TrEMBL record:
Pfam families: CO_deh_flav_C, FAD_binding_5. InterPro entries: CO_DH_flav_C, CO_DH_flav_C_dom_sf, Diverse_Substr_Oxidored, FAD-bd_PCMH, FAD-bd_PCMH-like_sf, FAD-bd_PCMH_sub1, FAD-bd_PCMH_sub2, Mopterin_DH_FAD-bd. This is Carbon-monoxide dehydrogenase medium subunit/2-furoyl-CoA dehydrogenase FAD binding subunit. It comes from Aeribacillus alveayuensis. Its EC number is 1.2.7.4, 1.3.99.8. The lineage of its organism: Bacteria, Bacillati, Bacillota, Bacilli, Bacillales.
Length: 295
C-alpha cells in the first residue's frame, strides 16, 4: 500500500518547524529518518495531512560534552552515536545497545530522537536511556521544557510530547566512580524487534558494594520497565548468587507480559528473568574490573 495524499514542508530553522507544527496541530507529523513513520503511513495506520521534514535543521545534529553530561541532538543519526568516541568513553551502554538496532542501513538513516519519540517498548535507545537516566528537551513555539526520562514514555507508541511540540536534544549524565553496564536482547534474527531486552547501569563503592543500579526491561510492558525494586534490594550489597536469585524473584513478581504471535507470556517472563540476572551480573563484573571506565 501507499500513503494517502499529504502536504510536504522542509523548514530550514527550528522556529520555522515549530510554527508549522503549531499551525498543523493534530494533522501534522514530523519526519526525520522515516524508519518507523514511512512503513506506518504505507500501511495507513497513520494518515497525516502534512509532513514536516526536519532534516535541514542542522542545529539538532550533534554529540557534545558539557561538564557532567553528554548532549545529543535529536537529529543525530544512530550510526553516529554508535561510532562516537564521546559515547564510547562516557556512555558505554549506548555503544553496546545501538548495534542491535535493525541493520547498518537502518542506523545510517534512523535518528536518536526519532527512536525515542516513536517509543516502541522493545527499542534499544528508549531502553538504554531509561537505564542511563537524563532529561529530554521538548520545544514548542512558546517554550522549551525539560522532561525526565522516567516521565517521558506514557504507553505503547505514546510519549509526553504534544502535537505542537518537537524533541530537540537529550542530556545524559555521566556516571562517576566505579560503574559498569550491560545490554542483552533476544530476537528471532539479528535486526528483528526484540522479544525481550534488558539494560543495566550499575555503580559500586570501594568495597564492591552496589550503590546504585538501574535495571530496565523491554518487551514486557507498554513502556520500558524500570525495576526500582531491584535498586532497593541490592543497594549496599555485594553481588552474590542469593542476591541474583532475589533479582529473578522481583522480575517474576513485577513482570506481566502479554502473549502475541511472536511469543507467549510465559516465554517472555522466562526470558525477562534470565536476561535480568545476566545483565546485572555482567554490569557488576564490568564495574569491578574497569574502574572509572565511563568517567
Amino acid at each position: 500500500m501507499k500513503p494517502v495524499k499529504f502536504d510536504y514542508y522542509s523548514p530550514k530553522a527550528v522556529d520555522e518547524a515549530l510554527t508549522l507544527l503549531e499551525e498543523a496541530g493534530f494533522d501534522g507529523k514530523i519526519i526525520a529518518g522515516g524508519q518507523s513513520l514511512v512503513p506506518i503511513m504505507n500501511m495507513r495506520l497513520s494518515s497525516p495531512e502534512c509532513l514536516i521534514d526536519i532534516n535541514r535543521l542542522h542545529d539538532l545534529h550533534f554529540i557534545e560534552m558539557d561538564s557532567d553530561k553528554v548532549k545529543i541532538g535529536a537529529l543525530t543519526r544512530q550510526a553516529e552515536v554508535e561510532r562516537s568516541d564521546v559515547v564510547q568513553k562516557h556512555l558505554g551502554l549506548l555503544s553496546e545497545a545501538v548495534p542491535f538496532i535493525g541493520h547498518v542501513q537502518t542506523r545510517n538513516r534512523g535518528t536518536f530522537g526519532g527512536s525515542l519519540v516513536h517509543a516502541d517498548p522493545t527499542a534499544e535507545i528508549p531502553l538504554s536511556l531509561m537505564a542511563l537516566g537524563g532529561t529530554l528537551h521538548i520545544a514548542s513555539k512558546d517554550e522549551v521544557r525539560e522532561v525526565n526520562v522516567e516521565d517521558f514514555f506514557i504507553t505503547y507508541l505514546t510519549t509526553d510530547i504534544m502535537p505542537n511540540e518537537m524533541l530537540t536534544e537529550i542530556h545524559i549524565p555521566i556516571e562517576k566512580g566505579r560503574n559498569g553496564y550491560s545490554f542483552y536482547e533476544i530476537s528471532r534474527r539479528h535486526g528483528d524487534f526484540a522479544l525481550v531486552a534488558s539494560a543495566c547501569q550499575l555503580t559500586i563503592d570501594h568495597l564492591e558494594r552496589i550503590s546504585n543500579v538501574r535495571l530496565v526491561l523491554g518487551g514486557v510492558e507498554a513502556t520500558p520497565l524500570l525495576l526500582e525494586e531491584v535498586n532497593e534490594s541490592m543497594t549496599g550489597e555485594v553481588l552474590s548468587d542469593s542476591l541474583l536469585k532475589k533479582v529473578e524473584d522481583i522480575v517474576d513478581e513485577m513482570v506481566d507480559p502479554e502473549s502475541d504471535i511472536h511469543a507467549t507470556a510465559e516465554y517472555r517472563r522466562h526470558l525477562a528473568k534470565k536476561l535480568a540476572v545476566r545483565t546485572v551480573k555482567s554490569a557488576y563484573e564490568r564495574a569491578r574490573g574497569e574502574t572509572n571506565e565511563c568517567s
